[in-house]
Amino acid sequence: MAIHRPEPAQTFADAVEAVSATRFRADLLVREIPAPVGLAPEAYALAADVRPEPGVEDSPYGTGRFVLLHDDTHPDAWDGPWRIVCFAQAPLETDIGTDPLMADVTWSWLVDALASRGAGFHSISGTATKTLSKGFGGLAAEGDGAQVELRASWSPTDDVGAHVEAWAELVCMLAGLPPGSEDAPLLRAHGRNL
Fold first, then answer.
1. DSSP code at position 82
2. What's the whole-model pTM score?
3. Which of 4, 22, 86, 111 is the most buried (most CB within 10 A)?
4. How far apart are CA 159 and CA 14, in angstroms?
5. What are the residue ranges spanned by the domains of the chain?
6. Quick one: which of 101, 191, 92, 174 has its CA closest to 133?
7. Model confidence over 109-133: pLDDT tens digits?
8. What is the DSSP string of 120-138?
9. Chain centroid to CA 120: how far?
10. Could you tell me which residues come within 8 angstroms of residue 12 by beta carbon, excluding any fewer than 6 positions away?
């Protein structure tokens, strides 16, 4: 027996309008992108880059994707008609990338960002992955590297504006820009201020 859960009281068009009306901090460039096909009858997608460099597709500081899905058939895994899918990644200092709790901290940042915006949700799932790399041959000069990546999805129980704000906060947190740090320098690999 399915549990009755509250649902966002909005149409898909209203939800897209709420997401589109969101104001983001100046150092996060957000743009609409083509939504993935085949996940739901209705979908809307955004991409974000932290302090992107001109002519570069993805920011070297942090990037993310946000997808809003709507399906009136209430897919079992969603336990409702709405689903949000998000992705966020950022490079790390190598010593931070080896921290055994980094994946746990990354996941907690998502949950905390949702809570800080008062974004209600259920049926959350996802992964937080940290990777370490070492260059060899022609890439040896690049040295060691680390990266964190979060993939998550959840079903919103209220209007979606707060959810896109939480995702934007997460992307910035992963890039080293916590709330209230607009225009602060980014500290990144090899101790460089960016």
1. E
2. 0.84
3. 86
4. 9
5. 12-176
6. 92
7. 999 999 999 999 999 999 999 888 8
8. -EEEEEEEEEEEEEE--GG
9. 16
10. 42, 44, 70
- Identify which of 109, 143, 139, 145 has the alpha carbon closest to the alpha carbon of residue 126: 109
Do 166 and 82 meet the contact criterion of CB atoms below 8 Å apart?
no
Residue for token digits 């942090």? 62
- Compute, in degrees rounded to 10, the torsion defined by CA atoms 137, 141, 143, 147: -90
182 pLDDT band (50/70/90 cuts)? low
Q: What is the mean pLDDT of the chain?
A: 85
144 class by beta-carbon count within 10 Å (0-12 exposed, 13-18 middle, 19+ buried): middle
* Residue 104 token pair: 């746990």
11-48 pLDDT, tens digit per residue, is: 899 999 999 999 999 889 999 999 999 999 999 999 99
Residue 100, both tokens: 């055994």
Place of tokens 């939800």: 15
**pLDDT given at position 54:** 78
